[in-house]
Fold:
Amino acid sequence: MDKIFTSLILFAITLLFAITFGLSGIPKLLAGGVPDWFTGKFGNCFLASFPGLFLSFYIIALAETLNFLGLVISVVRLEFLADRPKIFLKLSLISSAFTFIMLGFGQRLTHESTGAAYLFFYCGITIFCYFIIDKIEKQNNK
Structure:
């Protein structure tokens, strides 16, 4: 029964991150260009000149979408099952932490302290989830 609950928790974590990044990354990639809100928000900071708003926007969109795809692969590989290796799940969580850092940097850059604080929290929870999953994986490999 313990492995069932562990698998359900792992599946919930995977779905949470997949939904978070799928619903944010895919629409950005399909937006057909840099949206006005992004230009308005970052057009007056150094990102407008380096690396440029187009590249900045699509780096974020690509990072979010790759996180989503890694989590989809994790589900297909049944990595949420307690006794399965969690290669893509763990890689996606590491990538997610860096994505949250990148997004938090943008919030700090535009002086949006509340949004930056949320992203700091999201990054911390992501790292916490990684270590919980790593502990579960090591425990099941004994």
Summary: The mean pLDDT is 95. Residues 2-42+50-140 form one domain.
